[in-house]
Amino acid sequence: MKNLSRLLFAMLLVLGFSNTHAQDENNPWAMSFGVNAVDLYPVGEDTPQGDYFDEFFNVGDHWNILPSLSSISVSKYINDGFSFGVGGSINRIEKIGQIGKDIPSLRVEEMSYYAVDGTIKYSFAELVNSKTIEPYIGVGGGYTWIDKIGAGTLNGSLGLNYWFTENVGLTVQTSYKHSFEDYLSKHWQHFAGVTVKFGGTDTDGDGIYDKDDACPEVPGLPEFNGCPDTDGDGIEDAKDDCPNEAGPAELNGCPDTDGDGVADKDDKCPTVAGLKSLNGCPDADGDGVADGDDKCPNEAGPAANNGCPWPDTDGDGVLDKDDKCPNEAGTVANNGCPEVVAPTAEVMTTLNNYARTILFATGKSSFKNETYPVLQAITAILKDYPESNFTIEGHTDSVGSKNTNQLLSERRANAVRDYLISNGINADRLVAAGFGEDYPIADNKTAAGRKNNRRVEVKLRK
């Protein structure tokens, strides 16, 4: 009972040691518990002990085994395959060797055995590249008591872990303990038991330890280093523009209902296939205006006219928007208006020959009867040039006051203009002007000259 208390005390020391170190690797802690066997025979000594490794596996004659839980240890992973552990063990010594072949086992009165040891181990798991078989070696030291006699020991160990799961395995180990004092026998101690690894933190419970988990507080998948893929589209949420809706990788995880290559979130027409350039909306007539904004969706037209073609009301090839005469066919060169056919010099000469024969009552603006055929001839010529504009000029001789002559010339010019308008000539085409006696074309000193100066002239207005 006293020895058991010492073992429990050693275990408390071990656990106390383990709680002073922070966890820094997956399952950094390991606890082993099982049975140990102490062999005092094959240690290179004289009788009753034997040479090194002599009858090393003679369990029946030389191994002292306490048939109960008799060893426990805790180890902490350090780095690069190294770990440090502390363990405690108890046993009962009844056999220490042999004194002859006839007496293969030298039995002694039952002696107590207990030990506390510290060991630095090196694992060959990476070398053998196995997740199941893990050989290791260890060196360390400790303190061992046999029947209340204690001394320090230098220990060397060789062992093997066989892992049934990531955390649970079978451990077998043999250790040579070399005493620093002659009064404590050198001996071998063998161990077999179960080892449990623990201490790895997995906050989100997704099976990926926090140190390797890029999203340690959110359950995720191994292929994404522990980060989630909520919609299951193979794109982790952090890189998924639509983490709650499955979509292809080329659209960063967003769906495309109409299959037009524009993600629904960016598609103004998500249920109808369209063009990327129009934010996923269709353009049936291919004019670059989305059908929803196109007032003529089946007829191509410019955006400036809401997708409809510009009209050409007069059919002259000049669109109404550019046609200065949209209701009258014209030429492109004349901005959609008819080409202006101006009267020739010969026509103007004819007009003025007629105009000079217009006769008025003396001192008045009323026409003499013989003048009407002349006025009709002038009207007919002007109708032949509907796009030309004219100025009707009135002139007098110098008889009478200048002011009177000015007013008379104006009235006579307007009289001619009024006649032409009343006979179908557009008023906008005609301007009347009187110049009195200012521009004579003959000598006012003669009767013939004064007759020539009393005249009406028609001039082409640009």
Automatic annotation (TrEMBL):
<dbReference type="InterPro" id="IPR006665">
    <property type="entry name" value="OmpA-like"/>
</dbReference>
<keyword id="KW-1134">Transmembrane beta strand</keyword>
<dbReference type="GO" id="GO:0009279">
    <property type="term" value="C:cell outer membrane"/>
</dbReference>
<dbReference type="GO" id="GO:0046930">
    <property type="term" value="C:pore complex"/>
</dbReference>
<dbReference type="GO" id="GO:0015288">
    <property type="term" value="F:porin activity"/>
</dbReference>
<feature type="domain" description="OmpA-like">
    <location>
        <begin position="347"/>
        <end position="462"/>
    </location>
</feature>
<dbReference type="InterPro" id="IPR050330">
    <property type="entry name" value="Bact_OuterMem_StrucFunc"/>
</dbReference>
<keyword id="KW-0813">Transport</keyword>
<dbReference type="Pfam" id="PF02412">
    <property type="entry name" value="TSP_3"/>
</dbReference>
<dbReference type="InterPro" id="IPR006664">
    <property type="entry name" value="OMP_bac"/>
</dbReference>
<dbReference type="GO" id="GO:0006811">
    <property type="term" value="P:monoatomic ion transport"/>
</dbReference>
<keyword id="KW-0472">Membrane</keyword>
<keyword id="KW-0998">Cell outer membrane</keyword>
<dbReference type="GO" id="GO:0007155">
    <property type="term" value="P:cell adhesion"/>
</dbReference>
<keyword id="KW-0812">Transmembrane</keyword>
<dbReference type="InterPro" id="IPR003367">
    <property type="entry name" value="Thrombospondin_3-like_rpt"/>
</dbReference>
<dbReference type="InterPro" id="IPR028974">
    <property type="entry name" value="TSP_type-3_rpt"/>
</dbReference>
<dbReference type="Pfam" id="PF00691">
    <property type="entry name" value="OmpA"/>
</dbReference>
<dbReference type="GO" id="GO:0005509">
    <property type="term" value="F:calcium ion binding"/>
</dbReference>
<feature type="signal peptide">
    <location>
        <begin position="1"/>
        <end position="22"/>
    </location>
</feature>
<dbReference type="InterPro" id="IPR036737">
    <property type="entry name" value="OmpA-like_sf"/>
</dbReference>
<keyword id="KW-0626">Porin</keyword>
<dbReference type="InterPro" id="IPR011250">
    <property type="entry name" value="OMP/PagP_B-barrel"/>
</dbReference>
<protein>
    <submittedName>
        <fullName>OmpA family protein</fullName>
    </submittedName>
</protein>
<keyword id="KW-0406">Ion transport</keyword>
<keyword id="KW-0732">Signal</keyword>
